[in-house]
Specification:
The protein folds into two domains: about 5-200, Formyl transferase, N-terminal domain (Rossmann fold, 3-Layer(aba) Sandwich), CATH 3.40.50.170; about 235-330, Methionyl-tRNA Fmet Formyltransferase, Chain A, domain 2 (Roll), CATH 3.10.25. The protein is about 25% helix and about 25% strand. It is built from nine helices and 19 strands. The protein has helices at about 15-25, 50-60, 75-80, 95-100, 125-130, 165-190, 235-240, 250-255, 325-330; strands spanning about 5-10, 30-35, 40, 45-50, 65, 85-90, 105-110, 135-140, 150-160, 205, 220, 220-225, 225, 265-270, 270-280, 290-295, 300-305, 305-315, 320-325. The strands form five sheets. Strands 5-2-1-6-7-8-9 form a seven-stranded mixed sheet. A hairpin with a 5-residue loop joins strand 18 and strand 19 (about 320-325). The longest helix has 24 residues, at about 165-190. The chain is elongated. The N and C termini lie far apart (about 70 Å).
Length: about 325
């Protein structure tokens, strides 16, 4: 089978998914259907708004399906009639078995981490919050347990020291799209084959490996052991509130990992202050942890366990987002 003959149904909703759908279209794939969220009221006028994926699909003349419920018999019949060879899901809701198990080649998901690390709803955020230096994109086959299916392809992505989750998201969107196309092509020419996530479990040792015996994994006589898996659960409001008792490095990573959405926050003058960017200053001090200080011109900083966090980009409750210098022109502690 050649790429143009492969019948693909694509499932996705936000901008992140549009990049992958566009990459498939540009590669000459046969997209027989696009499943996305129903139009929803949004904005001050509460006018019906189409998803980013629907807008793109309509612009390309693609067949769009917008089921309220994925188990609706009418939708399932419509989906079955498309006779997809494979389904691709990117940034979409959880699929019932009757949907993801329908096509003969199964359903491929694009996930924003190097599985099995960071399974869950917010892999990009948690990788940055935890101070990771490298993350990546994984394509894998869906199965019953969330984010546990057999891995197809993985592409590592370095994380910058000051990079935010939003910036990483935008880079990963493009890398994920390319990885997806390579996955589809690899499945057709048999250069890509599924492997269990158990084979990809990370290991940890005290020293760099020199020799490794596959029958008895060890490094200089020390057995290799599986390192703990980090998870990426949904982020709630309580996750976003700052704890100034932490180290400057931990707070800096948390602010990056929650920027621009949902955004880390603290309180100042009894008002909620969202923090989008900062610099860290590691130093000894006798200032009470969590105390803010400013020159009312160029800096606003909070003391933490081992130094200070200098806020550079923020939004006070009821105000617009702005640089700290602009904020301080109209605000006094």
């Amino acid at each position: 089978m050649i790429l143009a003959d492969l019948r693909i149904v694509f499932l996705g909703t936000p901008d992140f998914a549009v990049a992958s759908l566009d990459a498939l279209v540009q590669a000459g794939c046969n997209i027989v259907g696009v499943v996305t969220a129903p139009d929803k009221p949004a904005g001050r006028g509460m006018q019906l708004t189409e998803s980013a994926v629907k807008k793109y699909a309509v612009s390309k003349g693609l067949n769009v399906l917008q089921p309220e419920k994925l188990k609706n018999p009418a939708f399932l019949e419509e989906l079955k009639a498309l006779k997809a060879d494979v389904q691709v899901v990117v940034a979409f809701r959880m699929l019932p078995v009757v949907v993801w198990d329908m096509p003969p080649m199964g359903t491929i998901n694009v996930h924003g981490s190097l599985l099995p690390q960071y399974r869950g709803a917010a892999p990009i955020n948690w990788a940055v919050i935890n101070g990771e230096k490298v993350t990546g994109v994984t394509t894998f086959k869906l199965q019953h347990a969330i984010d546990t299916g057999d891995i197809l392809l993985q592409t590592p992505i370095p994380i910058g020291d000051n990079e935010t989750a939003g910036e990483l998201h935008d880079r990963m969107m493009l890398v994920g799209a390319d990885t997806l196309v390579q996955t589809i092509k690899g499945l057709l020419d048999d250069s890509v084959s599924p492997k269990s996530q158990q084979e990809c479990l990370p290991t940890t040792v005290d020293r760099l490996p020199l020799t490794v015996d596959s029958n008895h994994p060890s490094v200089n006589g020390e057995r290799l052991t599986e390192s703990p898996l980090n998870h990426a659960p949904k982020i709630f409001t309580e996750t976003c509130q700052m704890d100034w008792n932490l180290s400057a490095a931990s707070i800096h990573n948390k602010i990056r990992g929650l920027s621009p959405y949902p955004a880390a926050f603290t309180f100042i003058n009894e008002k909620k202050l969202k923090i989008f960017a900062c610099n860290k200053e590691i130093t000894t001090h006798n200032t009470e942890v969590g105390r803010s200080s400013t020159d009312n011109k160029t800096y606003l900083k909070f003391s933490c366990a081992d130094g200070y966090i200098h806020i550079t980009d923020l939004q006070l409750e009821g105000k617009k987002r702005m640089p700290v210098e602009e904020f301080l022109r109209g605000f006094r502690l």
